Amino acid sequence: MAPDDELTFLRWLEETDRPDGRLDVPLGDDGAVWRLDGDQRLVLAADALCEGSHFDSGTDPALVGRKALAVNLSDLAAMGARPICALATCALPRGFDLAQAQAMTDGMRRLGELFGCPIVGGDTVTHDGGVVLSVTAIGVPEPGGPITRCGAESGHHIAVTGALGGSRSGRHLTFLPRLSESRSLLELGPPSAMIDVSDGLLIDLHRIADSSGTGFRLDADRVPRHPDGGSPLDDGEDFELLFTAPPHVMESIQGAWDHPCGLTMIGEILEVDRILKIGGSEEPAPRKGFRHA
Amino acid sequence: MAPDDELTFLRWLEETDRPDGRLDVPLGDDGAVWRLDGDQRLVLAADALCEGSHFDSGTDPALVGRKALAVNLSDLAAMGARPICALATCALPRGFDLAQAQAMTDGMRRLGELFGCPIVGGDTVTHDGGVVLSVTAIGVPEPGGPITRCGAESGHHIAVTGALGGSRSGRHLTFLPRLSESRSLLELGPPSAMIDVSDGLLIDLHRIADSSGTGFRLDADRVPRHPDGGSPLDDGEDFELLFTAPPHVMESIQGAWDHPCGLTMIGEILEVDRILKIGGSEEPAPRKGFRHA
């Protein structure tokens, strides 16, 4: 499917989606929020990785399995949710051997154990093609959650965890999903809107602004650059948390923040304009981001 | 992955699975059963379809989308569960066009609407390979459920819904998952063990016997043959419900059964021996079933 068709398809999916009364947060956020009988809600995320697009052929299968779960846990973190369990299906090439499949499973399971998210089911199929690994992660909102992309308001500050850029040189396979940081943000905040930086800081900030119906000013010079290099504005796959909060909430978050990854204020929400401030001058913020091959 | 490796991998998955106190039914059944806080339980199933294995290239994309959801709903039916929602990821070939992707989605959504199971999230990726469509279905147990493969006991009768054989000539793309029949079975029974016939009657009956620690006598001459032809014992992809119940329970199920697909008694559970009765003579029941290409 051509890149333009992919965008049209995603837009079509959202436009033709039929609203369901039990769905508190529909398509188009990092996860869906489903209301069960009673008060209980589920936060649901599903992402697939393909060989050649999301990881190179020859990548250690343990890291591939790990990443497939990690990107979904990152979605739950962005929703302010705690994972409870996950399911995985894998389509494997005919030449894939047993030891590789076991290593892939082990990589996924080990990360799941670290975050209290056992792999409870799935399916394995063999096909003529590369590895396709699909994970569905199931979570429940943390107290104060879920957090969507929709709540940013003019005057709110914008912050990001960690440092950005250069993830594709290796970090995208080994990053720790920011679940613990997300829990702290909900305890200290909560944020008014949140997303994980998967496609790039600029494009993901545009998404918060799109969903919230606002603009923003991003101060590029303040964006923390990762030692891995690359472009912190649009490299993508950083899997850091990008969020907004009213100034007094942001202040108490900053004051109490003690996670080693750090936390940096990088801009503010505006009413309409979307501005990139860089080297002292301001320009319209480009909609730039990372696209998988 | 070679077929033998696939079986070894599945065995390894089950053997190395770490038990989790919140998991009422672990790997190896049609679905996992997860206990949430409070009394609520989720029934979870995940199955993937690959072009060339589960459907031919050139198959109407609407039927492919439909089948991807249907096989998962069939798993929920086999568990005695009602679907609440589903998530889908698809890996699409680069040549796949927008209209095909939309038709695939529509096929899946329409079946979901029929069974009260909206598609609430997912992911679309493009890769060098055929269509791989992965669905996770989330359900809740019907009253009296969930039903596993484990409860069959010597003396219980064996029955199957509908008629078997020849599904791969087309029916595997259009079958209706037996959710309504499953609900009736739970109201009238419940069954002591249940599975959906996905890989073939013989192999799936062996699975009930494996999980329950029993034998069986299958009366081949009584197995209802579908007009589509083929072999009703091992064609697979029938997606009928195969279940067991004590004689008096089976009697009340049969007496009240009013589903058009019918219901047929086809054998009984034995203590140890696994016997295929065919044309008046008895032989050890072969472990024969359908394997995807």
Features:
homodimer; 293 residues; alpha+beta; seven-stranded mixed sheet; six-stranded mixed sheet; 13 strands; 29% strand
Question: Describe it for me?
Answer:
Two copies of one chain form a homodimer. Helices cover 27% and strands 29% of the residues of chain A. The radius of gyration of chain A is 19 Å and the shape is globular. In chain A, helix 2 runs parallel beside helix 3 (98-114) and helix 2 runs parallel beside helix 4 (179-188). The termini of chain A are close together. The model of chain A has no long low-confidence stretch (mean pLDDT 94). The longest helix of chain A has 18 residues, at 61-78. Chain A has 293 residues and is an alpha+beta fold. The first copy, chain A, has helices at 3-15, 61-78, 98-114, 179-188, 201-212, 247-256; strands spanning 23-25, 32-35, 41-50, 81-93, 119-127, 132-141, 157-161, 193-196, 215-219, 241-245, 263-270, 274-278, 281-284. Chains A and B meet through helix 1, strand 3, strand 4, helix 3 and strand 5 of A and helix 1, strand 3, strand 4, helix 3 and strand 5 of B.
